[in-house]
Amino acid sequence: MANESSFVAIAHGVADEILTLPFRVVRGAPLLYEIRVSNALEVMSQEQVRKPKRGTSAFQTDLCVFEDKTPDIAIPRVVIEFKTGITTHDVLTYSAKALKHKQIYPYLRYGVLASSEKSIPGRVFTHNEGLDFFAAVAELQETEFKSFFASLLQAEIESSKRLEAIAFGTVKTRLFRTEVQINENVR
What we know:
- This protein is α/β, with parallel strands linked by helices.
- Helices cover about 35% and strands about 20% of the residues.
- The protein has a 5-stranded mixed sheet with strand order 1-4-5-6-7, sandwiched between helices. A two-stranded antiparallel ribbon has the order 2-3.
């Protein structure tokens, strides 16, 4: 894979190709990490909630898939952060960001794609608390990456929709679990 910026551009192109309305992908979208209540017990404005700005209770994301619910309401479904390699600091940082965002958007799926990692380093398992997925995609050819990413994105959107239904009580469930998928064909 290429550098981080071109890696994001390739993924953005794949997302644009496969997503149809009401879903769309945005590069650099800010998402809320808190909703403030003033000392007069006033909740921040609807404008701040619907159109967050980086630096005002919002973190910027690399790529975010939104679902347009109405012309002026779009909810985030999937956030993907892109790194070349992954450090312990990266895992801690993105895990913490994921947890903050999920306090506002409980159905949000949040993950990292690392273009220079051949397999998932142990530090991801040791230090992760909030990430829903991590993909090590080094050595995938561009067509392999596009297929892999399209499949991942569709699966994460479906997971987000299921979580939303559970979170807001439209679906009841007896079981929730995370599942680890092993691909032993890593080169």
